[in-house]
Amino acid sequence: MRALVISGGGSKGAFAGGIAQYLLEVEKQSYDLFLGTSTGSLLVSHLALGKVETIKKAFTHVNQSSIFSTNPFIIVSKNGVDQIKINHFNVLKNFIRGRKTFGESYNLRRLIEQQITIEDYDILKLSHKEVLVCVANLTGNRVEYKKLKECSYSDFMDWIWISCNYVPFMTLATKEDCEYADGGLGCVIPIEKAITLGASHIDAILLGTEFQMTHRAHSKNPFDALSSIFGFISDRIEVQNMHIGKLVAEDYNASLRVFYTPEILTNNSLVFNRSQMKKWWQMGFDHAQSKSKN
């Protein structure tokens, strides 16, 4: 059994899309299992369907309003660098409404349903392919994996959306009497899960550099501080996931090929810049091509 596993990474998911396009269209790889966390969960259904151009168009045409129904950020570009500032009005409005987070991401939930139709869902449900997304159950204090074939259409759209909800900047969703958030809070890249499900060959796309290269600037506001804290936590989880994944691959005698980003793409993965994401998609394709030749 062959598996394609894609990590979380917000807007950097465009880079993963470029790699996946190369693997599917040039290397002609065929996968039985597709697993995604956070932004990876947005990609896996279309990749399993072979609809690469559809998801490419979706990924390279989104902006902040495509994601946020209440945007907690103001993006300021200074000397070509995007900086995040607090949208005090929207944050205050959310608190007055009794919301639990700084921002809301209901626009993303609508976008997911527009991009993955019930016909797409039916095709995948009848196919031999398995599609799974990773979510964090905060109430149950555990990571969960939701299989498309075990969910209704509406439920699976919810789970994809929930997997992407980077709390506290996006919606904290309540489902099945539990509070759920971004799967990356518990598992950034689910290589171990793919292997325990029976995958003997895994192509894993990790939206970070292979070696620690991050040097974060000092925080200018509470959002910067929170971003740095969650970035640090995510990096530690990522390292742990990779270490465990490699050990499990050895134990199960599974083949593991990992694609990293060749450089730091961004320190603000909640900034969705169309031109930048188009560039990253092509960069991912070119990087996979270069790695394959080497």
Short key terms for the protein model shown above:
8-stranded mixed sheet; 294 residues; 11 helices; alpha/beta; two-stranded antiparallel ribbon; single chain
Short description:
The chain is built from 11 helices and 10 strands. The chain has 294 residues and is α/β, with parallel strands linked by helices.
Mean pLDDT: 93
Main β sheet profile:
8 strands, mixed
Helix content: 40-55%
Give the oligomeric state.
single chain
Q: What's the N-to-C terminus distance?
A: 25 Å
- Counting DSSP E segments of at least 2 residues, the number of strands comes to 10
- What is the alpha-carbon Rg in Å? 18 Å
SS-based class: alpha/beta
Helical region count? 11
Share of residues in strands: 15-25%
Task: State the order of secondary-structure elements, H for helix, E for strand.
Answer: EHEHHHEEHHHEEHEEHEHEH
> What overall form do the CA principal axes indicate?
globular
